[in-house]
Amino acid sequence: MSPRVVLVGPMGSGKTTVGRLLADRWGVAVRDTDEDIERAEGRTISEIFVDDGEDRFRELERAAVAAALDAHDGVLSLGGGAVLADATRERLAGHTVVFLRVGLSDAVKRVGLGTSRPLLLGNVRSRVKALLDERTPIYEQVATFSVDTDGRSPEDVAEEIAVAL
Ligand code: S3P
C-alpha cells in the first residue's frame, strides 16, 4: 500500500486543509503524521517538545512517517519538518509528493501570530522566514511537483492538484 499523494510544505502552507479536501474529493482517508503522533503519545506536539525536546519529537516523527507511508493508501500530510530527516527523504522517493509552496506573508497569516507551534514561539515572522529559507530547497528536492498557495483558497489548491494527478 502506498499513499496516493503525500503533501509536504511549511507550517501555514495548508497541508491539513488541502489534504482533507483531496481526500473528500477522492473518497479516501486522510492521515496526518502530527495527529498520529499525538494520538499514539496521548500528548500534544507542544507537550512533547516541552517534556522531551525536539530531538525526541523528530524520532517519533520519523517512525510515524515510515508507518504511514507503508500502511496508508489515501492522502498523507507530513509535519513541516519531517523532510529534514535523511531517512524520510529516502523513503519519499517513488511516492507522489506535492510541495505546497507558500510565501512569508501568507504563511504568517495562516499560522497566526498567536500560534502555539513550539518552533515559532518568540517572533513568529522571523522564525517563519528562517524556516522557509532553510527548508524550501529540501521541499523542492523531494517533490514530484509543487503548487503555489499564496493568495489562494485551499479549494483552489486542491483542484489544481486533483487535475494534475
Ligand atoms: C513543525 C511543523 C508542525 C509540527 C511541529 C514541527 C516543523 O507541523 O510537526 O510543530 O518543524 O515545521 P505543521 O507543518 O503541520 O504545522
Overall 3D geometry? globular
Number of domains: 1
Q: What is the averaged pLDDT score?
A: 93
Distance between the termini: 18 Å
Mind summarizing the main beta sheet? 5 strands, parallel
State the strand order across the main sheet. Answer: 2-3-1-4-5
What percentage of the residues does DSSP assign to strands (E)?
A: 5-15%
**CATH homologous superfamily descriptor:** P-loop containing nucleotide triphosphate hydrolases
| CATH architectural label | 3-Layer(aba) Sandwich
CATH topology: Rossmann fold
Structural class: alpha/beta
Number of helices: 8
* CATH class descriptor name: Alpha Beta
In terms of per-residue confidence, which ranges show pLDDT below 50 for 5 or more consecutive residues?
Answer: none
Give helix and strand order, one letter per element, not per position.
EHEHHHEHEHHEH
**Strand runs, count:** 5
> In percent, how helical is the residue content?
55-70%
Based on CA atoms alone, the radius of gyration comes out at: 15 Å
Small-molecule binders: shikimate-3-phosphate
Keywords: Amino-acid biosynthesis, Aromatic amino acid biosynthesis, ATP-binding, Cytoplasm, Kinase, Magnesium, Metal-binding, Nucleotide-binding, Transferase
Main location: cytoplasm
Subunit structure: Monomer.
Pfam family, one: SKI
Describe the structure.
The protein is globular, with a radius of gyration of 15 Å. The chain has one domain: Rossmann fold, CATH 3.40.50.300. The protein has eight helices and five strands, in the order βαβαααβαβααβα. The chain has helices spanning 15-26, 33-41, 45-52, 54-71, 86-92, 104-111, 124-142, 154-164; strands at 5-8, 30-32, 75-77, 97-101, 145-148. It is of the alpha/beta class. α2 (33-41) packs across α4 (54-71) and α3 packs across α4. The mean pLDDT is 93. The protein has a five-stranded parallel beta sheet, sandwiched between helices. The protein binds shikimate-3-phosphate. Shikimate-3-phosphate binds next to loops.
